[in-house]
Design brief:
The complex is a heterodimer of chains A (49) and B (747). Chain A is mainly alpha-helical and 49 residues long. Chain A is 65% helix and 0% strand. The longest helix of chain A has 25 residues. The radius of gyration of chain A is 19 Å and the shape is elongated. Classes of the chains: A mainly alpha (49), B alpha+beta (747).
Chain lengths: 49, 747
């Protein structure tokens, strides 16, 4: 059962990184315009008329 | 735009030499709009960035200061086909956005902690019935403690703060028993971990927090959404005023940018945007939206005028004033203060329950401890059982019971074009048994319409309406609304105080006073006048007709009043207008109880009288004179056309020309209130079952976790019924022409 000693901290670390990623995205303003983000992906911003 | 609008007051100058402007945009309806707007603006010289927020229809533009005027941005948008209005984020809205973000962070932390702790807890539960070694169990408990303690310290803040706030004011609310339960459960679990015991409650604590935060966040998100729409609508009203600058030139500026002492110019047919004193000029003023009085009042130098009055005949120069003593505004504000103070005494349903609940639960826990000690158990076991009682009764379902219904119901209201200003308005709306309407602008439309449009020959009416497009006179504006083809005739000439004329295909058209159109004889024979009707005549060659212009009833006023009566509400009218004007409206709607000529203080007196009879009064009004009455009533609604001061007092605001949202509001609020009570009952039944089990010491952490999530889900699912039936009934009807969302898009 010694395997638990590093498997569990690893699992926790993975969870923490997920939390950190979410908090970063929140701070970064990724949720400010949810509907717009869904539509912007459809536009070709590299092809300017 | 013939005149350019001076928007400099809205421009924010930043340190890096750029200027920033926020705009609310009308007319956004597809993905291509994003590209069109952003791409179009980026081609303007000097624009650094244009970013459209599609969710709330707001645009942020930045440009190098001095290279571009803000008006050019608005003009470019106009050219692209969008109407843009400068937007100033209200303090409330910014505060709510910050709070929502904070709640989301707390929610994320609680979610992370509850998932990981549950992972450890499930292992312990299954290990306890199989072959887990005490060392591994201790290790898991310590890990859980390590996660739970910081997580609760962070994610529990909303509850700690609210509970502290309540206790400091000598009250209790639902958060007090929650916080006590959380802290005791945590404390006990830590002690048990140190003693390497079998059971800890870390998982229950964190899961409880997670559920509660979900409820809080949804509540917040719903409120923020309505606030954003309301904020845009306020910006879209786009009130502008001609300010007279130092050199005597009139400049078009947003009304919000005016300061006391500024001089403004108000032309005939325009609404006065500010409170002030007339400096020069004389005119007639229609103050119906302010006082409810539909008779026009002469305005001469030295007279006080109020925002919302309509200038009829002459150009006025007005000096902007702050509210002076003795004016209507001052009286209204003083009445408001006392009325609003009386209102804050209302206690929310949830707090009422919490007040009774907390002492009972804490007493039960105390009794448990005493009973166990007297039965011969050790102090340790007695305390553990007492804490288990507190944990299992920690009012998770109870705390969710009301907010979840509020979220679902305000969503339903939002779809029927009603915005709630206050959270507890639903409960008060549900309790209302008497409804008091203001007349002008509430039962009637705020604008004037041609009353006899159906009786005039359509082609004659159409020519009159197109001719009216060339005039700014308020009566002509009313006639112009009948025009199907919205192009004015060429060469129309307006004669001040008389009317407007044009020659089309060799025939002379005239619209104006009856004598101007040679129709005085027609007037004499059709003079069965009602009090609030104005007359305008039209002639085309030899054909002549008389048009009656008045503030028409809202199209569905009669049916809505009937629907409200069917709901068991006692309908009344309380108007500031004259009896002659109120009586026909009351008769048309079948309302027997009406009072006219009521001043703001009279309105409050009437409402107080009704309240003294034990009635719960719902006030619907829009004028400045209604603001104190709205605050004094148990609950209040105002149309979106109401003045800012009035809207701020109303518990809810409805959109559109129809009165039907009021009946919908009452129905939805009643259903929501029923569901709230049902939910509270469900939560209570759960406690009645759980407490005896906990008392007897049967509650394990597994059972606590199951019971808590079970009762919370049950309450949440029940709350969803607040929208179910409503969405079915609206889908059966043709879709509403103006939904809240399309109003945003300028429909």
């Amino acid at each position: 059962m010694e395997v638990l000693l590093y498997l569990i901290p690893m699992a926790l670390l993975l969870g923490l990184s997920g939390l950190a990623a979410f908090l970063w995205s929140l701070k970064n303003g990724q949720y400010d315009d949810v509907k717009g983000a869904a539509l912007r992906v459809l536009t070709d911003d590299d092809i300017r008329p | 735009m013939a005149e350019t609008l001076d928007l400099s007051v809205y421009v924010k100058r930043q340190d890096d030499g750029t200027a920033h402007l926020d705009l609310a945009i009308e007319g956004i309806d597809c993905a291509a709009c994003i590209d069109e707007i952003e791409g179009g603006l980026c081609q303007l010289p000097g624009v650094v960035e244009a970013r459209l927020n599609y969710t709330n229809h707001r645009l942020a533009v930045e440009w190098r200061d001095g290279e571009l005027s803000p008006a050019a941005v608005v003009e470019e948008l106009q050219r692209l086909g969008y109407r843009a209005h400068p937007f100033q984020a209200r303090l409330v809205e910014e505060e709510e956005t910050r709070r929502a973000k904070w709640l989301l962070k707390c929610l994320a932390v609680a979610g992370f902690a509850s998932m990981n702790i549950m992972l450890l807890a499930v292992s312990v539960w299954s290990g306890n019935v199989t072959d887990i070694t005490p060392e591994i169990r201790d290790f898991f408990h310590w890990l859980a403690a390590l996660i739970a303690l910081p997580a609760v310290a962070y994610a529990g803040q909303p509850f700690f703060q609210s509970a502290m706030g309540a206790l400091r004011n000598g009250r209790t609310n639902m958060d007090v028993p929650i916080v006590i339960g959380i802290l005791l459960a945590l404390g006990m679990s830590v002690v048990e971990t140190i003693n390497s015991a079998e059971h800890t409650y870390f998982d229950s604590v964190v899961m409880l927090l997670f559920f509660l935060l979900c409820g809080r966040y949804l509540d917040q998100a719903m409120r923020r959404k309505t606030r954003a729409v309301a904020g845009n609508l306020a910006a879209l009203r786009a009130e502008v005023t001609h300010r007279v600058n130092e050199s005597g030139e009139p400049v078009l500026v947003p009304t919000a940018a005016l300061n006391p002492g500024d001089r403004v110019l108000v032309r005939p047919g325009e609404r006065v945007g500010v409170d002030g004193v007339i400096l020069s000029g004389s005119s007639e003023l229609d103050e119906s939206l302010v006082t409810g009085e539909t008779v026009r009042r002469p305005g001469t130098p030295g007279d006080v005028v109020y925002a919302g009055s309509l200038n009829y005949s002459g150009t006025l120069t007005i000096q902007v004033t702050a509210a002076g003593t003795g004016t209507l505004l001052d009286k209204v504000e003083r009445l408001l203060e006392s009325a609003a103070a009386a209102k804050s005494r209302y206690v929310q349903l949830a707090d009422k329950v919490a007040r009774a609940y907390a002492p009972v639960v804490h007493l039960a826990a105390l009794l448990t401890a005493i009973a166990w000690v007297t039965a011969g158990a050790s102090l340790h076991d007695a305390l553990i059982t007492a804490v288990a009682v507190l944990i299992i009764t920690c009012p998770c379902a109870l705390a969710l019971a009301v907010p979840v219904v509020q979220v679902v119901a305000s969503g339903a209201l939002f779809r029927s074009n009603v915005f709630l200003n206050t959270g507890d308005a639903l409960e008060r709306l549900a309790a209302a048994d008497t409804i008091v309407f203001d007349k002008t602008g509430t039962l009637t439309l705020p604008d004037m319409r041609v009353a006899n449009a159906g009786k005039v020959r359509p082609d004659l009416l159409e020519s009159a309406a197109r001719l009216a497009l060339s005039s700014h006179h308020p009566l002509a504006t009313a006639v112009a609304q009948e025009a199907r083809l919205r192009t004015p005739y060429e060469g129309a000439v307006e004669e001040a105080g008389q009317g407007v004329s044009a020659t089309v295909d060799g025939v002379e058209l005239r619209l104006g006073s009856p004598s101007y159109c040679g129709a005085s004889d027609l007037l004499a024979e059709s003079l069965e006048q009602e009090a609030d009707v104005s007359v305008i005549a039209f002639s085309r060659g030899d054909e002549r007709t008389i048009l009656y212009v008045r503030q028409a009833l809202r199209p569905d006023a009669a049916s809505t009043v009937k629907a409200l009566r069917d709901l068991g509400l006692d309908c009344r009218i309380l108007s500031g207008d004259r009896p002659e004007a109120v009586a026909p409206i009351a008769a048309m709607l079948g309302i027997e109880q009406w009072k006219a000529g009521a001043k703001p203080a009279d309105k409050i007196a009437v409402l107080e009288g009704l309240k003294a009879e034990g009635r719960k009064v719902l006030m619907v009004g829009d004028g400045l004179n209604d603001a104190p009455a709205l605050a004094a009533a148990d609950v209040s609604i105002s149309p979106i056309t109401a003045s800012d001061l009035t809207q701020a007092q109303a518990d809810a605001v409805f959109l559109g020309e129809k009165l039907a949202p009021i009946a919908n509001t009452v129905t939805i609020a009643r259903r929501a209130h029923g569901l709230m009570r049902q939910n509270l009952l469900l939560a209570l039944i759960y406690n009645l079952i759980a407490v005896p089990l906990a008392f007897l010491g049967y509650v394990t952490p597994l059972l606590a976790a199951l019971a808590m999530s079970g009762s919370s889900s049950l309450v949440t699912l029940n709350a969803l019924r607040a929208r179910g039936r409503n969405s079915q009934s609206t889908s059966a009807q043709p879709p509403q022409p103006v939904s809240a969302a399309s109003a945003l898009q300028g429909a």
